[in-house]
Protein backbone atom coordinates (compact mmCIF):
# COMPACT_ATOMS: atom_id res chain seq x y z
CA UNK A 1 0.00 0.00 0.00
CA UNK A 2 2.88 2.34 0.76
CA UNK A 3 4.20 1.85 -2.78
CA UNK A 4 0.75 2.51 -4.19
CA UNK A 5 0.41 5.72 -2.23
CA UNK A 6 3.83 6.85 -3.53
CA UNK A 7 2.69 6.14 -7.09
CA UNK A 8 -0.43 8.26 -6.66
CA UNK A 9 1.58 11.14 -5.23
CA UNK A 10 3.82 11.05 -8.31
CA UNK A 11 0.86 10.99 -10.68
CA UNK A 12 1.28 7.41 -11.92
CA UNK A 13 -1.31 4.68 -11.98
CA UNK A 14 -0.53 1.55 -9.96
CA UNK A 15 -0.86 -0.71 -13.01
CA UNK A 16 1.33 1.42 -15.27
CA UNK A 17 4.03 2.49 -12.84
CA UNK A 18 4.27 0.05 -9.93
CA UNK A 19 3.30 -3.33 -11.27
CA UNK A 20 5.34 -3.28 -14.49
CA UNK A 21 8.58 -1.56 -13.49
CA UNK A 22 11.92 -3.08 -12.57
CA UNK A 23 12.45 -3.72 -8.80
CA UNK A 24 15.19 -1.09 -8.70
CA UNK A 25 12.81 1.45 -10.22
CA UNK A 26 10.12 0.51 -7.70
CA UNK A 27 12.62 1.06 -4.90
CA UNK A 28 13.21 4.57 -6.22
CA UNK A 29 9.48 5.27 -5.90
CA UNK A 30 9.05 3.80 -2.37
CA UNK A 31 12.36 4.99 -0.88
CA UNK A 32 13.90 7.71 -3.08
CA UNK A 33 17.25 7.91 -1.26
CA UNK A 34 17.90 4.19 -1.07
CA UNK A 35 16.26 3.59 -4.45
CA UNK A 36 18.56 6.07 -6.19
CA UNK A 37 21.61 4.09 -5.06
CA UNK A 38 20.04 0.85 -6.21
CA UNK A 39 19.11 2.42 -9.57
CA UNK A 40 22.67 3.67 -10.22
CA UNK A 41 24.08 0.28 -9.34
CA UNK A 42 21.54 -1.38 -11.58
CA UNK A 43 22.47 0.83 -14.60
CA UNK A 44 26.09 -0.28 -14.31
CA UNK A 45 24.97 -3.89 -14.44
CA UNK A 46 22.44 -3.60 -17.28
CA UNK A 47 23.13 -6.04 -20.12
CA UNK A 48 22.50 -5.40 -23.86
CA UNK A 49 19.71 -7.96 -23.82
CA UNK A 50 18.00 -6.19 -20.91
CA UNK A 51 18.17 -2.89 -22.78
CA UNK A 52 16.82 -4.49 -25.93
CA UNK A 53 13.97 -6.02 -23.93
CA UNK A 54 13.17 -2.55 -22.59
CA UNK A 55 13.26 -1.00 -26.08
CA UNK A 56 10.88 -3.63 -27.41
CA UNK A 57 8.53 -3.14 -24.46
CA UNK A 58 8.20 0.62 -24.89
CA UNK A 59 8.18 0.23 -28.67
CA UNK A 60 4.80 -1.47 -28.38
CA UNK A 61 3.46 1.86 -27.15
CA UNK A 62 5.14 3.81 -29.98
CA UNK A 63 7.92 5.14 -27.76
CA UNK A 64 11.61 4.96 -28.63
CA UNK A 65 14.85 5.91 -26.81
CA UNK A 66 16.45 9.07 -28.21
CA UNK A 67 19.95 7.97 -27.21
CA UNK A 68 19.84 5.18 -29.78
CA UNK A 69 19.33 7.61 -32.68
CA UNK A 70 20.57 10.98 -31.40
CA UNK A 71 23.92 11.00 -33.21
CA UNK A 72 22.28 10.09 -36.49
CA UNK A 73 19.72 12.89 -36.47
CA UNK A 74 21.76 15.74 -34.96
CA UNK A 75 25.00 15.72 -36.92
CA UNK A 76 28.05 17.97 -36.92
CA UNK A 77 27.41 18.88 -40.57
CA UNK A 78 24.69 18.22 -43.18
CA UNK A 79 24.57 14.53 -43.99
CA UNK A 80 22.45 14.36 -47.12
CA UNK A 81 21.85 11.23 -49.21
CA UNK A 82 21.64 13.53 -52.26
CA UNK A 83 24.53 13.18 -54.67
CA UNK A 84 25.86 15.43 -57.45
CA UNK A 85 24.51 14.49 -60.86
CA UNK A 86 24.31 15.80 -64.42
CA UNK A 87 21.44 15.13 -66.84
CA UNK A 88 22.56 15.62 -70.46
CA UNK A 89 20.11 17.22 -72.87
CA UNK A 90 21.40 15.07 -75.73
CA UNK A 91 20.18 12.01 -73.85
CA UNK A 92 16.93 13.48 -72.56
CA UNK A 93 15.68 15.12 -75.77
CA UNK A 94 15.10 11.83 -77.69
CA UNK A 95 13.37 10.36 -74.64
CA UNK A 96 11.05 13.36 -74.43
CA UNK A 97 10.08 12.96 -78.08
CA UNK A 98 9.53 9.25 -77.51
CA UNK A 99 7.27 10.05 -74.56
CA UNK A 100 5.37 12.38 -76.91
CA UNK A 101 4.56 9.38 -79.09
CA UNK A 102 3.47 7.22 -76.16
CA UNK A 103 1.00 9.43 -74.30
CA UNK A 104 -0.84 12.68 -74.96
CA UNK A 105 -0.56 15.76 -72.77
CA UNK A 106 -4.27 15.47 -72.00
CA UNK A 107 -4.06 11.86 -70.85
CA UNK A 108 -0.89 12.44 -68.83
CA UNK A 109 -2.24 15.77 -67.53
CA UNK A 110 1.43 16.79 -67.31
CA UNK A 111 3.78 14.86 -69.61
CA UNK A 112 6.98 15.20 -67.62
CA UNK A 113 10.17 13.20 -67.22
CA UNK A 114 11.10 13.59 -63.56
CA UNK A 115 14.77 14.16 -62.75
CA UNK A 116 15.33 11.99 -59.68
CA UNK A 117 18.47 12.37 -57.63
CA UNK A 118 20.35 9.02 -57.73
CA UNK A 119 20.45 9.08 -53.92
CA UNK A 120 16.66 9.55 -53.70
CA UNK A 121 15.33 7.20 -56.38
CA UNK A 122 11.61 6.51 -56.20
CA UNK A 123 10.89 9.67 -54.19
CA UNK A 124 10.11 12.03 -57.11
CA UNK A 125 12.59 14.73 -56.14
CA UNK A 126 15.95 16.11 -57.21
CA UNK A 127 16.86 17.23 -53.67
CA UNK A 128 15.33 16.57 -50.26
CA UNK A 129 13.14 19.66 -50.61
CA UNK A 130 12.66 20.29 -54.35
CA UNK A 131 11.28 18.65 -57.48
CA UNK A 132 12.55 18.96 -61.04
CA UNK A 133 11.23 17.62 -64.33
CA UNK A 134 11.23 18.32 -68.06
CA UNK A 135 7.76 18.92 -69.52
CA UNK A 136 6.95 18.42 -73.20
CA UNK A 137 4.07 20.08 -75.06
CA UNK A 138 3.72 18.97 -78.68
CA UNK A 139 2.26 21.24 -81.41
CA UNK A 140 -1.50 21.63 -81.03
CA UNK A 141 -1.63 20.16 -77.53
CA UNK A 142 -3.09 21.56 -74.33
CA UNK A 143 -2.04 20.51 -70.83
CA UNK A 144 -5.41 20.86 -69.06
CA UNK A 145 -6.21 23.41 -66.39
CA UNK A 146 -5.74 22.62 -62.72
CA UNK A 147 -4.40 24.19 -59.53
CA UNK A 148 -2.44 22.92 -56.54
CA UNK A 149 -0.88 24.05 -53.28
CA UNK A 150 2.63 23.69 -54.62
CA UNK A 151 4.30 26.73 -56.18
CA UNK A 152 5.88 26.09 -59.56
CA UNK A 153 8.46 27.68 -61.81
CA UNK A 154 8.91 27.14 -65.54
CA UNK A 155 12.25 27.78 -67.20
CA UNK A 156 12.05 27.47 -70.98
CA UNK A 157 14.66 25.23 -72.63
CA UNK A 158 13.42 24.41 -76.14
CA UNK A 159 11.09 25.96 -78.70
CA UNK A 160 9.05 29.13 -78.86
CA UNK A 161 5.41 30.08 -79.20
CA UNK A 162 3.83 27.91 -76.50
CA UNK A 163 1.93 29.66 -73.74
CA UNK A 164 1.01 29.32 -70.11
CA UNK A 165 -2.14 30.89 -68.68
CA UNK A 166 -2.31 31.82 -64.98
CA UNK A 167 -5.49 33.18 -63.38
CA UNK A 168 -6.80 34.67 -66.62
CA UNK A 169 -3.47 36.05 -67.89
CA UNK A 170 -1.58 34.44 -70.76
CA UNK A 171 2.10 34.65 -71.64
CA UNK A 172 3.89 33.32 -74.72
CA UNK A 173 7.16 31.70 -73.69
CA UNK A 174 10.61 31.66 -75.29
CA UNK A 175 13.95 30.08 -74.42
CA UNK A 176 15.45 31.53 -71.24
CA UNK A 177 12.18 32.97 -69.93
CA UNK A 178 11.37 32.40 -66.26
CA UNK A 179 7.65 31.98 -65.52
CA UNK A 180 5.93 31.61 -62.15
CA UNK A 181 2.80 29.65 -61.28
CA UNK A 182 1.85 30.78 -57.75
CA UNK A 183 0.37 28.41 -55.22
CA UNK A 184 -3.34 27.62 -55.71
CA UNK A 185 -3.76 29.43 -59.02
CA UNK A 186 -5.51 27.82 -61.98
CA UNK A 187 -3.11 27.31 -64.88
CA UNK A 188 -2.95 25.52 -68.18
CA UNK A 189 -0.40 25.26 -71.00
CA UNK A 190 -0.82 25.11 -74.76
CA UNK A 191 1.32 24.96 -77.87
CA UNK A 192 -0.16 26.60 -80.97
CA UNK A 193 3.29 26.64 -82.64
CA UNK A 194 4.66 24.14 -85.14
CA UNK A 195 7.49 22.80 -82.93
CA UNK A 196 7.74 20.85 -79.66
CA UNK A 197 8.17 22.95 -76.53
CA UNK A 198 10.16 21.87 -73.45
CA UNK A 199 10.70 23.57 -70.14
CA UNK A 200 12.18 22.76 -66.77
CA UNK A 201 9.53 22.45 -64.06
CA UNK A 202 10.64 23.29 -60.52
CA UNK A 203 8.25 22.76 -57.63
CA UNK A 204 8.39 22.91 -53.84
CA UNK A 205 6.48 19.60 -53.79
CA UNK A 206 8.55 17.91 -51.03
CA UNK A 207 8.28 20.98 -48.76
CA UNK A 208 4.50 21.04 -49.08
CA UNK A 209 4.38 17.28 -48.60
CA UNK A 210 6.38 17.31 -45.36
CA UNK A 211 3.97 19.95 -44.02
CA UNK A 212 0.92 17.88 -45.08
CA UNK A 213 -0.48 20.96 -46.81
CA UNK A 214 -1.07 19.60 -50.31
CA UNK A 215 -4.31 20.26 -52.17
CA UNK A 216 -5.20 19.87 -55.86
CA UNK A 217 -8.25 20.73 -57.94
CA UNK A 218 -8.95 20.14 -61.61
CA UNK A 219 -10.53 22.81 -63.77
CA UNK A 220 -14.01 22.57 -65.22
CA UNK A 221 -12.64 22.95 -68.76
CA UNK A 222 -9.40 22.19 -70.59
CA UNK A 223 -8.26 25.79 -70.70
CA UNK A 224 -9.27 29.04 -69.09
CA UNK A 225 -10.57 32.21 -70.66
CA UNK A 226 -7.81 34.81 -70.71
CA UNK A 227 -8.56 38.50 -70.67
CA UNK A 228 -5.06 39.92 -70.33
CA UNK A 229 -1.67 39.22 -71.87
CA UNK A 230 1.84 39.23 -70.51
CA UNK A 231 2.48 42.76 -71.70
CA UNK A 232 -0.18 44.00 -69.28
CA UNK A 233 1.45 42.13 -66.39
CA UNK A 234 4.86 43.46 -67.41
CA UNK A 235 3.53 47.02 -67.63
CA UNK A 236 2.05 46.80 -64.16
CA UNK A 237 5.02 45.30 -62.33
CA UNK A 238 8.01 44.97 -64.65
CA UNK A 239 9.30 48.54 -64.69
CA UNK A 240 10.20 49.12 -61.02
CA UNK A 241 6.67 50.44 -60.49
CA UNK A 242 3.24 49.13 -59.50
CA UNK A 243 -0.34 50.34 -59.78
CA UNK A 244 -1.07 52.84 -57.02
CA UNK A 245 -4.07 50.91 -55.71
CA UNK A 246 -2.34 47.50 -55.77
CA UNK A 247 -2.33 45.57 -52.49
CA UNK A 248 -0.60 42.18 -52.47
CA UNK A 249 -2.67 39.17 -51.43
CA UNK A 250 0.24 36.74 -51.64
CA UNK A 251 3.97 36.57 -50.88
CA UNK A 252 4.57 35.42 -54.48
CA UNK A 253 5.59 38.01 -57.04
CA UNK A 254 2.66 39.51 -58.99
CA UNK A 255 5.02 39.62 -61.98
CA UNK A 256 4.83 36.07 -63.30
CA UNK A 257 6.89 36.46 -66.53
CA UNK A 258 10.56 37.45 -66.50
CA UNK A 259 11.68 37.57 -70.17
CA UNK A 260 15.20 36.37 -70.89
CA UNK A 261 16.15 39.31 -73.09
CA UNK A 262 15.86 41.67 -70.12
CA UNK A 263 17.83 39.39 -67.82
CA UNK A 264 20.56 38.86 -70.43
CA UNK A 265 20.88 42.60 -70.97
CA UNK A 266 21.24 43.17 -67.22
CA UNK A 267 24.01 40.57 -66.99
CA UNK A 268 25.91 42.23 -69.84
CA UNK A 269 25.66 45.58 -68.05
CA UNK A 270 27.11 43.98 -64.91
CA UNK A 271 29.96 42.55 -66.97
CA UNK A 272 30.94 46.06 -68.04
CA UNK A 273 30.51 47.87 -64.73
CA UNK A 274 30.85 45.37 -61.85
CA UNK A 275 33.75 43.33 -60.54
CA UNK A 276 33.65 39.62 -61.17
CA UNK A 277 32.82 37.57 -58.08
CA UNK A 278 35.40 34.88 -57.42
CA UNK A 279 32.83 32.11 -56.92
CA UNK A 280 29.86 32.84 -59.19
CA UNK A 281 30.89 35.49 -61.72
CA UNK A 282 28.01 37.92 -62.25
CA UNK A 283 24.84 36.69 -60.53
CA UNK A 284 21.33 38.15 -60.19
CA UNK A 285 18.42 37.12 -57.97
CA UNK A 286 14.87 37.21 -59.31
CA UNK A 287 12.75 39.31 -56.95
CA UNK A 288 9.19 40.28 -56.16
CA UNK A 289 9.09 43.85 -57.55
CA UNK A 290 6.58 44.98 -54.92
CA UNK A 291 8.41 43.74 -51.81
CA UNK A 292 11.98 43.33 -53.02
CA UNK A 293 11.97 39.83 -51.53
CA UNK A 294 12.09 36.45 -53.28
CA UNK A 295 9.96 35.99 -56.38
CA UNK A 296 8.63 32.72 -54.88
CA UNK A 297 8.54 32.39 -51.09
CA UNK A 298 9.77 28.79 -51.07
CA UNK A 299 12.24 28.77 -53.98
CA UNK A 300 15.09 31.16 -54.65
CA UNK A 301 15.74 31.75 -58.36
CA UNK A 302 18.89 33.14 -59.97
CA UNK A 303 20.63 33.83 -63.27
CA UNK A 304 24.38 34.17 -63.63
CA UNK A 305 27.02 34.88 -66.25
CA UNK A 306 30.41 33.17 -66.26
CA UNK A 307 32.75 34.90 -68.75
CA UNK A 308 34.87 32.75 -71.04
CA UNK A 309 37.89 31.41 -69.18
CA UNK A 310 36.27 31.81 -65.76
CA UNK A 311 37.86 29.61 -63.07
CA UNK A 312 35.67 29.89 -59.99
CA UNK A 313 36.78 29.64 -56.39
CA UNK A 314 35.35 26.90 -54.17
CA UNK A 315 31.90 27.57 -52.73
CA UNK A 316 29.35 25.70 -50.66
CA UNK A 317 26.02 26.45 -49.01
CA UNK A 318 23.30 24.59 -47.18
CA UNK A 319 20.76 25.06 -49.98
CA UNK A 320 21.08 22.25 -52.51
CA UNK A 321 21.00 23.99 -55.90
CA UNK A 322 19.68 22.91 -59.30
CA UNK A 323 21.34 24.48 -62.35
CA UNK A 324 20.41 24.51 -66.01
CA UNK A 325 22.53 25.99 -68.80
CA UNK A 326 21.12 28.55 -71.22
CA UNK A 327 24.29 29.37 -73.16
CA UNK A 328 27.87 28.18 -73.19
CA UNK A 329 29.97 25.25 -72.02
CA UNK A 330 31.97 24.53 -68.92
CA UNK A 331 32.17 22.24 -65.94
CA UNK A 332 31.33 21.87 -62.28
CA UNK A 333 33.97 20.24 -60.08
CA UNK A 334 32.32 18.65 -57.06
CA UNK A 335 33.02 15.67 -54.78
CA UNK A 336 35.84 14.31 -56.96
CA UNK A 337 33.54 14.49 -59.99
CA UNK A 338 33.78 16.63 -63.11
CA UNK A 339 30.35 17.47 -64.53
CA UNK A 340 30.89 18.72 -68.09
CA UNK A 341 27.88 20.85 -69.03
CA UNK A 342 26.50 22.47 -72.16
CA UNK A 343 23.26 24.16 -73.28
CA UNK A 344 20.05 22.73 -71.73
CA UNK A 345 21.91 20.35 -69.43
CA UNK A 346 20.72 20.15 -65.82
CA UNK A 347 22.89 19.39 -62.79
CA UNK A 348 22.52 19.46 -59.01
CA UNK A 349 24.94 20.48 -56.26
CA UNK A 350 23.84 18.97 -52.91
CA UNK A 351 23.90 20.75 -49.57
CA UNK A 352 27.26 21.77 -48.10
CA UNK A 353 29.37 20.05 -50.78
CA UNK A 354 32.17 22.38 -51.99
CA UNK A 355 32.13 22.95 -55.74
CA UNK A 356 33.78 25.12 -58.37
CA UNK A 357 32.44 26.41 -61.69
CA UNK A 358 34.52 26.84 -64.84
CA UNK A 359 33.51 28.24 -68.24
CA UNK A 360 35.14 27.56 -71.62
CA UNK A 361 32.95 30.17 -73.31
CA UNK A 362 30.56 32.85 -72.08
CA UNK A 363 28.09 30.81 -70.05
CA UNK A 364 24.67 31.79 -68.72
CA UNK A 365 22.99 29.56 -66.13
CA UNK A 366 19.64 29.59 -64.35
CA UNK A 367 19.42 28.05 -60.88
CA UNK A 368 16.95 27.53 -58.06
CA UNK A 369 17.10 26.30 -54.46
CA UNK A 370 15.24 26.31 -51.15
CA UNK A 371 17.27 29.26 -49.81
CA UNK A 372 14.19 31.41 -48.94
CA UNK A 373 12.90 28.71 -46.59
CA UNK A 374 16.27 28.21 -44.95
CA UNK A 375 16.79 31.93 -44.46
CA UNK A 376 13.30 32.37 -43.01
CA UNK A 377 14.15 29.66 -40.46
CA UNK A 378 17.65 31.05 -39.72
CA UNK A 379 19.25 27.86 -41.06
CA UNK A 380 21.06 29.01 -44.18
CA UNK A 381 24.88 29.03 -44.27
CA UNK A 382 27.51 29.54 -46.95
CA UNK A 383 31.28 29.28 -47.11
CA UNK A 384 33.77 30.53 -49.70
CA UNK A 385 37.18 28.91 -49.74
Automatic annotation (TrEMBL):
GO molecular function terms attached to this record: gentisate 1,2-dioxygenase activity
Pfam family, one: Cupin_2
Keywords assigned: Dioxygenase, Oxidoreductase
Cupin type-2 domain span: 134-201
N-terminal signal peptide: none
EC number: 1.13.11.4
Class of this enzyme: oxidoreductase
InterPro entries per UniProt: Cupin_2, GDO-like, Gentisate_dOase, RmlC-like_jellyroll, RmlC_Cupin_sf
Record Gene3D superfamilies: Jelly Rolls
Oxidoreductase among keywords: yes
Protein name in the entry: Gentisate 1,2-dioxygenase
Amino acid sequence: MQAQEQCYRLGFSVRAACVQVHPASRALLTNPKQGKLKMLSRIDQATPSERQFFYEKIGGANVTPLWEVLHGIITAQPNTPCVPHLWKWQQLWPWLLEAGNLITAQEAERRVLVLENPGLRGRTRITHSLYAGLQLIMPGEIAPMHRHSQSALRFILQGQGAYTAVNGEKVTMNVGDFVITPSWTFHDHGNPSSEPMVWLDGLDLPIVEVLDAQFMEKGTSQSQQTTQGANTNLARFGNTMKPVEYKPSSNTSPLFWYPYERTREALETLRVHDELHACWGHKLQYTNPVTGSWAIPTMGTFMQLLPAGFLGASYRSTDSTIYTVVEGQGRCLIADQILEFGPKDVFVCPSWMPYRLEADSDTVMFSYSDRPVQQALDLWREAME
